[in-house]
Amino acid sequence: MELTLDLWLWQLDVDDAEIQAFERHLSTDEISRGASFVFEKDRRRFIAGRGRLREIMGLETGQAPEKLRLEYDTGGKPYLSNGPAFNLSHSGGWAALVISPGPSIGVDIEAHRPVEKSVADHFFSPNEQTALHNLSDDAWLAAFFRCWTRKEAYLKACGTGLWSPLSSFDVTLDSDTDTRISRIAHATDHPDLWTLLHLNLGPDFTGAIAVRAAVATRIVYHGHHPPLSVQPQG
After folding, report:
1. DSSP-assigned letters across all residues of 184-230
2. Quick check: is 189 in a domain?
3. DSSP strand E in 12-167: where?
4. pLDDT tens for residues 133-169?
5. 231 falls within a domain
6. Is the model's pLDDT at 234 over the cut of 90?
7. How far apart, in whole angstroms, are the C-alpha atoms of residue 216 and residue 220?
8. Which of 209, 208, 204 has the alpha carbon at shortest distance from 228?
């Protein structure tokens, strides 16, 4: 058995005509949420992210984008009660949407940026901190983002966002040759129930997908294909 995941990538910085088209797809609460952003750039990126998500999920379900009724779990994760599982992430001017035919799914992408080493010491597990401490500065930053994206992808798939402690489970920090969850403290969960996937998005980005299924998994890219380059804030 092989599980196929669809991964859509698109730029969030688009022209006014596209923003207006995306905005027509949004619900009243999404329009209000967009209006709450302080900076216009952030408002536009939210509209481009949510509007394109609605277009894609509309194609998946055979519904008009504006007719989709998105619901939210207790962690704020949107879902469709009668549709496929999906998850959205955005960073550095890009959005990533992963769609699963059934199992719970989470995705995280992160544009590389300077990070204080104290962040890892504060949030990561002792095993992960030990693995990071022996790395050079360049290798440390890449490993940090592999760790962070894998952890957040897992938590998003669980539907808990970042409400659960990042130190309550371990992930491997190696590149795509060994990507997995190695420990979960919660008694009702186990690493063997999960597949963790590394996304090779280029030198400026790191990404990961977590899916609650212990099967061979294939990713099919749609829209843009890696590598991704960080878009200026402007």
Report:
1. E-STT--GGG-EEEEE---TTEEEEEEES--SEEEEEEEES-SPP-P
2. yes
3. 71-72, 78-79, 85-91, 94-100, 105-111
4. 989 988 999 999 999 999 999 999 998 655 689 999 9
5. no
6. no
7. 13
8. 204
Three-class DSSP category at 51: helix
Tokens of 157: 């798939």
The HSE-up count of residue 76 (CA atoms within 13 Å, CB side) is: 4
Q: What is the CATH number of the domain that holds 174?
A: 3.90.470.20
- Tokens 């209006």 locate to 35
- How many CB atoms are located within 10 Å of the residue 133 CB? 11
CA dihedral over 18, 21, 27, 31, signed as positive or negative: positive
Distance CA 209, CA 217 (A): 11
- 152, 106 contact by CB (below 8 A): yes
Q: How far apart are CA 95 and CA 75, in angstroms?
A: 20
